[in-house]
Amino acid sequence: MRIVDPTQGREDNGGRGLVSTDARRLGGQVCLLSNSKPNASELLTRVAARFGELRGAPLFVKPASSRPAPAELLDRIAESFDAALVALCD
Fold this sequence. Notes:
Blueprint: E1 10-12, E2 18-20, E3 30-34, H1 40-50, E4 59-61, H2 71-80, E5 83-87
Parallel strand pairs: 3-4, 3-5
Antiparallel strand pairs: 1-2
């Protein structure tokens, strides 16, 4: 799994040129992942509603914000999706 921060512009792709980290160019199957903090799911739902490519994207929620996501959840996301939009907010 590669973590991309779209606020950081572009990244070197191991000598194979620059890869855009623009979230709109990630493509593929995208899901939403909330860290369970107050308003994280609300934020993700509202962002997804504004971007046609994200409408209908499944929302996954960690059981508790203070604990790591269960390995089963991360494995499911990694196996089934090309990208996850994550909200870490209060």
